[in-house]
Amino acid sequence: MMRYLTLLFLSACTTVPGTGRSQFNIFPLSEDVRLGDAAWKNTLETEKILPVDSPEHQRVDSIMRRLIAATQQQHPTLATTFEWDWRVIQDNSQINAWCLPGGKMAVYTGMINFVENDDQLAVVMGHEIAHAVARHGTERLSQTQAAQVVLAAADGELNDREMRMAESAFGLGVALPFSRAHEHEADELGIYLSAAAGYDPKEAVNLWRAMEQKDGRTPEFLSTHPSPSNRAAKITALLPTAERIRGRNK
Ligand SMILES: [Zn+2]
Question: How many domains would you assign to the chain?
Answer without folding.
Answer: 1
